[in-house]
Amino acid sequence: MAPEQKPEIEKELGEIRREVIESRNLVIKTDNLLKNLHAEVKAVGKWQTDQQRKQWVSSGVVYALFAILAGTFAFALSSAKASGIKTERDTLQKQVADLSTQLDKQKSELSANALAQRSAGEVYKEMTELPGDERLKGIDAYAKLDTSRLSSLEKSALRDRADALRKEVGESTFERGKNAFHKNDMPGVVAALTRFQAMNPPADELQDSEFFLGVAYNSLKKHDLAVAQLGKFVAGDKRSKSRDYGMTLLAQSLEETGAYDKALAIAREGLATYPNSQFAGMLRHRIGSVNRSIALAKGGAPTLAAPTTVAPAKASAPAPSAVPAALPAH
Fold first, then answer.
1. 269 is in which domain, residue-wise?
2. How far apart are CA 29 and CA 35, in angstroms?
């Protein structure tokens, strides 16, 4: 090789060596870059994996929370519906119970009304269809009848029939009592006029019956009953022409029952009111008899019945023909 070519060859070799070194450095640099890129790619993959894992956890938590909320809402809604259904059921059950009670009450009312109507029909038949005085059984049944469940028409029909029957039968009963009094049949007077008074008679006839019954009881020595009847008669119509006789018998019956003060007061009132009465002597005698009885009672001696000008039976209630004012007159 020529000497002049040697520097050029060395020069080219130097360049080649330099290029090789540069290439080698470039390769090393590239390798380092690739390693860094690989590390970065690996880091990015790990980050993505972590992010995906976190996303899964977050999604799971979200789904869990959503499920819990949905369950809670569903439970609350179900509870509210159940509570509403229970309340509605209780309300319906109460309404059914109330309606059942009202139905039972209405049935009872209807049964009671039907029974009252049947009873009223039987009473009306007794007052209409039974013979004679047996119709008075209808009046007795009418007095015991509960008319509150009857209609106004039914009440009016029963009342009118009872009033008509009282008037019809009462008049005959009252006449029987007066006839028995005229015959001096005192038990007959008591039987007839006791029934008559139970018929709710008019006030004037009731007062007359009190006189006749009082005389009858006095005659029968039932002085406590005589006091009850004669007391009402004397306290009633003070214009009655028989009042003086009634006061005479009342004073006697009061004395017989031991009511001396009342007997004395009645006898004195009778004598003061009727000083010219045909019974004035009997009233004076009654005053004396009562005073003696009072004196004996205060002295501790046994109370004895004072002598009287009226015999216990017939004399105390003489036949009406013997007593001018025996029949009440108003």
1. 175-322
2. 10
The CA distance from 196 to 182, in Å, is 17
Instruction: Using pLDDT thresholds of 50, 70 and 90, give the confidence band for residue 251.
Output: very high
Q: Would 237 be classed as within a structural domain?
A: yes
What does the buried/exposed string (b/e) look like for 187-211 if buried means 16 or more CB atoms within 10 Å of the residue's CB? ebbbbbbebbbebebeeebbbbbbb
Tokens linked to 74: 């569903």
Name the domain count of the chain: 1
Buried-exposed string 43-82: b where 16+ CB fall within 10 A, e elsewhere: eeeeeeeeeeeeeeeeeeeeeeeeeeeeeeeeeeeeeeee
Q: What is the tens place of the pLDDT at every residue in 98-154?
A: 888 888 888 888 888 888 888 888 888 877 877 766 776 776 787 778 788 888 888
Instruction: State residue 239's pLDDT score.
Output: 87
What is the pTM (predicted TM-score) of this model? 0.52
CB atoms closer than 10 angstroms to residue 156: 11
Q: Virtual CA dihedral for 120, 123, 128, 132, nearest 10 degrees?
A: -170
CATH number at residue 292: 1.25.40.10
Which tokens hold the place of 159?
A: 């009342």
